Amino acid sequence: MSTPVSALCLLGPTASGKSAAAMILAEHLPVEIISVDSAQVYRGLDIGTAKPSADERQRVPHHLIDILDPTQAYSAARFVHDARALIEQIHARGRLPLLVGGTMLYVRALIGGLHELPAADVHIRAEIEHEAALQGWPALHEKLAALDPTTAARLAPNDAQRIQRALEVYRTSGKTLSDWLAQTPPSGAANPDEFPIVSLEPSDRSWLHARIAQRFEGMIEQGLIDEVKGLRQRPDLHAELPALRCVGYRQVWAWLDQTGPHRVAELIDTGVAATRQLAKRQLTWLRAMQRHAVIDCTSSDTLARVLAAVKAVWQT
């Protein structure tokens, strides 16, 4: 007897066409979309997160969008709690939960469970943030590499949130994050068959790079710089908040901090490069996951193939 599907996951790197595919699915199936995006949870971060439009959100129910102020933090554990509750509610309405996004850590936590790690320590966290303000996150990444090379190897030098957490775990417990993960089995794991994954991935990486460049340039034209200027007017917001470390926002904020002449073209180059690195990390995560179907997002019939794959899963 086959395992009932709890929710289907439509995943892929940034700019691979996930949102468009999700809207096509909604025209053929009674889906409700659960966003799997660590940036779209924040109110006021709209252009740079490529949030669905008001019209799209009116046509199809979307969840886990605009649920937090940028001063707040969101985590994989919070996502798992929220997603499980939403999945139950959507099923109770006789509809189908569709998880859509690119924050692969959240999906891994939902399916594979969560490790029990030391609780956050606000004092140690503030100490690490102070060090980062003086030395920069790449310097702290080097410190982490000396302590925990396994963890450092899978983190980008500017991945502030995860570098901070890895250093915090070590300083609170005297044990590295990689040791904790190796020695503490995850709890709350689900049957992977309950969460089949349809993954949009490019057969030609240059196609994705071109899409990323086009999209970031479009965000600038739509007013991303002014959006960040508006956020900077709030005295309670600063560049080290998790919300403002998001790709795109981090680069615009740093660009606005520059003195002297600085051209928009330089910002676009920096933003595109950072987004390409994000996409590379997302693809690495995806290729380590158990998946139901991989669909070439560069193909002319991508949307039809996504619809066929999803219908096959929900009909079995």
Description:
This protein is α/β, with parallel strands linked by helices. The chain is 53% helix and 9% strand. It has 14 helices and six strands. It has helices at 18-28, 54-59, 76-92, 104-112, 122-135, 137-147, 149-153, 160-173, 177-183, 205-222, 224-232, 249-257, 264-287, 302-315; strands at 8-11, 31-36, 62-63, 96-101, 197-201, 293-296. Strands 3-2-4-1-5-6 form a six-stranded parallel beta sheet, sandwiched between helices. β2 (31-36), α2 and β3 (62-63) form a beta-alpha-beta unit.
Number of strands: 6
* Structure classification: alpha/beta
Low-confidence stretches: none
Oligomer: single chain
Helix content: 40-55%
Count of individual helical segments:
14
Give a brief outline of the structure.
By secondary structure, the chain is α/β, with parallel strands linked by helices. It is 53% helix and 9% strand.
Show the helix and strand layout:
Blueprint: E1 8-11, H1 18-28, E2 31-36, H2 54-59, E3 62-63, H3 76-92, E4 96-101, H4 104-112, H5 122-135, H6 137-147, H7 149-153, H8 160-173, H9 177-183, E5 197-201, H10 205-222, H11 224-232, H12 249-257, H13 264-287, E6 293-296, H14 302-315
Parallel strand pairs: 1-4, 1-5, 2-3, 2-4, 5-6
Characteristics:
6-stranded parallel β-sheet; 316 residues; 9% strand; 53% helix; alpha/beta
